[in-house]
Amino acid sequence: MKNTAGKGLFIGLSWAAFIIVLAISLLTIYLVYPRIASIHRVLPIVLWAIFGLGVVVVGGGLLLITIASLTGLDVLYPHNGKSITMRVLFPVVVGFGGFLGWEKIRLMDAFVATNNALLWAQRKRLSGKRILVLLPHCLQFHDCQWRITHDIENCRRCGKCVIADIAELGDRFGTAIRVATGGTLARKVVGDYRPTLILAVACGRDLSSGVIDSHPIPVFGIPNERPHGPCFDTTVDVRRLAELLEMLLPKPSADAESK
Ligand code: SF4
């Protein structure tokens, strides 16, 4: 998947936060150790056991996420477990990265890029039976009179915005495409359609909250391009959307093809 820099930022900050927490924990244990040992001789063993378990679980999970996102190898446990880990890492990285001076939107883009990479590593396990393409309303040309939020087929395909190309993708792949004007409507669309997989186009902020809100449904996030500023006549790389659909939709079996 593209956006290696985003993945690197997210993974790097995750490891930095992990090492800092590890160092603080070791320092705390060092300071309280004599007191704990004086209370009961078993307590230090319990303390080290809890510490060791935490290091193995968190460090091991982080190691698997790092390998999967950077190499594309499916070394992860089921994606629900991965989502939980990512839901924990997201606030840690955004908080820690923000503290270090990174822009929040850059950190959210990095989260989406890492989530995409992990889903990509697990792509053989994902079900493409009911893919939903979810679009933001700002992709539509601002002066267009046709109402596409209820039905993208209302688009007259004049070519003034990418909605025309995306509607054609829907025809070509037979995929459900919905346009949402905000998070509430997006959640309703997802609840009504019940997809097995979502391809969402939006800004990093909406994509990162969408990835978390849609759990356990996997969400591939495709950041929109904003040549005129946020939320106004935005656009998206339609070829990238088409490539993803091509790769994620179930392939007809050899038997079905020969009939
Ligand atoms: S392509 Fe469709 S949505 Fe875009 S301006 Fe033309 S009619 Fe409106």
Give the topology, please.
Elements: H1 4-39, H2 43-71, H3 79-99, H4 104-121, E1 131-136, H5 163-173, E2 176-180, H6 183-193, E3 197-202, H7 204-213, E4 219-223, H8 238-248, H9 254-258
Parallel strand pairs: 1-2, 1-3, 3-4
Notes on the structure:
This protein has 259 residues and is of the alpha/beta class. It folds into 2 domains: 4-119, no CATH class; 127-250, Rossmann fold (3-Layer(aba) Sandwich), CATH 3.40.50. 59% of the residues lie in helices and 8% in strands. It has 9 helices and 4 strands. Strands 2-1-3-4 form a 4-stranded parallel β-sheet, sandwiched between helices. Helix 1 packs antiparallel against helix 2 (43-71), helix 1 (4-39) crosses helix 3 and helix 4 (104-121) packs across helix 7. The longest helix is centred in the first third of the chain and has 36 residues, at 4-39. The protein is elongated and about 80 Å long. The model has no long low-confidence stretch (mean pLDDT 89). The structure holds iron/sulfur cluster. Iron/sulfur cluster (SF4) is lined by residues 140-141, 144, 146, 148, 155-161, 163-164.
- The CATH topology of the largest domain corresponds to Rossmann fold
- Per DSSP, the total helix count is 9
Structural class given helices, strands, pairing?
Answer: alpha/beta
The fraction of residues in strands falls at 5-15%
Shape: elongated
Based on CA atoms alone, the radius of gyration comes out at 22 Å
How much helical structure, as a percent, in the residues?
Answer: 55-70%
Bound molecules: iron/sulfur cluster
Uncertain segments are none
CATH architecture of the largest domain: 3-Layer(aba) Sandwich
Question: Strand count, sense and closure of the main sheet?
Answer: 4 strands, parallel
Task: Give the termini separation.
Answer: 35 Å
What multimeric state do the chains show? Answer: single chain
Report the top-level CATH class of the largest domain. Answer: Alpha Beta
